[in-house]
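FIELD: query
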Amino acid sequence: MKNLLEMLRNNPYPGRGIVVGRNRVYYFIMGRSVNSRNRIFSLTVDGIRTEAFDAGKMQDPSLIIYHPVRKTEEGLIVTNGNQTDTIRDHGFIGGCMQREYEPDEPNFTPRISAMLYDDGSFDISILKHLDGRCLREFFSYEGCDEGKGYFISTYQGNGNPLPSFAGEPVEVEMPEPDELWAALNEDNKVSLYTNVNGEVKLYNKNLGD
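FIELD: result
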């Protein structure tokens, strides 16, 4: 089991990340461009959405404005893109099978998704580019122990092009929300969503957090 805080402190740009643990889930976004950094998380009736912090600076919203979190009758969906709605409409496997990586060549950013169920089990997936095709990987967990979590991100680290996450979700020590926010790179972090036993908290750098 790895120390997630140490991993994040040593990685200036994992991109977007999901951490799923027992009765808790975290989702963070980071950005290198002005457009990506010009965002905040805001609450909605069924979860959260991304919004432009300064609408006048927004350029292409297609890959950066979406609902990362939605609560449905089936469970809690957490993703890094608009596949949240596809999963809501078609289920976790069915929704992911209809989507692929993001069309942002040369990075081909993976789509990462998780679904948490009321019985404590959860699913995680990553859809990524491989030799011109989409590789869809799925990981199903019956649950996990207290203090443990599973982490997946879009990138392994900084680079040009950005290297996609590789391997299984990483088993990590589950940190507290404030600790995770502090561990993210100060220049690149944008927003963080945390849900601990149903209590939601949002962190937004553009709002002074």
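FIELD: remark
The two ends are 29 Å apart (CA to CA).
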